[in-house]
Amino acid sequence: MLTDLENGRSYPDTNHRKKLGQWGESVAAHHLEAQGYEIVERNWRCREGEIDLVARIGQELVFVEVKTRRGRSRGTPEEGLTPHKSRQLLALGEIYTAVHDLDVDWRIDLVAVELDSQGKLLRCEHIPNAVLGW
Length: 134
Known about the structure:
Layout: H1 2-6, H2 17-34, E1 38-46, E2 49-57, E3 60-70, H3 83-99, E4 106-115, E5 121-131
Parallel strand pairs: 3-4
Antiparallel strand pairs: 1-2, 2-3, 4-5
């Protein structure tokens, strides 16, 4: 799938929101790994919600929200990170570190993945510290 992307071919099934989101998460994970991040978990869930990617860079834990958009009809990926979602991610970070008994520095990043209306990747942008809460 990423090979096709790297060769400039379109993702064939962007009409299905769930598949688009999964594809965006794979692109984001690949992008982060290329920057030296280790992907610890994907789609970590608990009763309160889900963290798309849990990564590590050095000793710091990074909770990553991935927002994928095809076209601009629903706004930019960054606009999808609402105040409500930001509060939820902060709570999920606290829960994750408690459940795993971790006493580490952590942050919440955003990876914005944007495609054109034909499904061609326009950008994959990593935004560190996208949610500040403490």
